[in-house]
Amino acid sequence: MLDIILAIAAIAIIFSIAWFMSNDRQNIPYKGIAFMLIAQLIITWFMFNTEIGKLIIEGISAAFNKLIEFGRSGVDFVVGGLAFLDPDDPSVFFFDVLLIIIFFATILSVLTYLKILPIIIKYLGGFISKITGLPKIESFNAVNSMFFGQSEALLAIKSQFHRVTENRLYIVSASAMGSVSASIVGAYLQMIPEQYVLVAIPLNMFSGLILASIIAPVSVEDEDDDVDIDEVTDSKSVFEAMANGALDGGKIALIVATMLIAFLASLELINFIIGAVIPGVTLEGILGWIFSPLAFLMGVPAGEISDAGSIMGLKVITNEFVAMGQLNEAMAGLSEKTIGVISVFLTSFANFSSIGIIAGTVAGINNEKGKIVSRFGMKLLVGTTMASLLSATIAGLFI
Asked: How many CB atoms lie within 10 A of CB 47?
């Protein structure tokens, strides 16, 4: 009972902050928000508490694991002959986790070229639009963001950018930042429990739309709300799609590796400086203290809120891979509920570096709109972080 009370309090606080941040409170779509919140509760209950839901998670996870096996065959051919300093522990994060992204990106590129994914995304987005009353472009982008990364999701609607007002720009940017790319999901599944990653994907789609619709509500005419899927790919053949997907996946793997090196090295430097000034204190400890109240409201046991808050804060200032690494190391000493709540929170791109990625992508499509995104960058980060908190809080009710 206490967990339910705390969850209601957490959701009320999240909604209140979003309401105060709203730039058009008169047009907040309360009916659509209520539908999406109910949908989140039903999805989470179904996936966690029914045999069919558990079977679905197991089936999807098995499919991902089989694809990971296929991906590793390619990785092993290229780097399988390397000798390791410690033969008893031959695991290398870059080879075992990041390079798998290349194969997943290739599959997504082919499915996009064949128009399989775009059609599914368009009609699923249209269904969500019809039920919630939200515009089609925003709904399409939210579903699209479950499959593609921040940049790719926004580029998929570039032909509709002339219709995107400032509020609509906030919503599509929030959906992109609050999501994860399907090409990276395989990497996540090798770091944290699969069931929480898979449930977090639809939860974050709805949470992103809910919070963005409160902060930047929109009302559009039918003529300004059409979705075009004809320009979602530049590939002229399946083989070109495979090549483009592989190259994109390679870029993602290298970008993630580069950012991990920079962030982890910077974290060590910051901890060294903090420790020199205040012995025994680390940035993770400070973040744990700041985020502890949020972790408590999300249902994390009192004895684990400091560790949970530390990992959550680390994700916001660095990225989800750094935080997932920390969670993976701490998992043995945490309860299942804490692991689940944190895992759902971590499964999104909501962090400081994503502001630059979103703004840069939008600027590449339309320079003026890119400046607008830069202007509301912090508002975007706060909104998407609250969306992750909302998803994790709902997940915590059923763990």
From this structure: 21
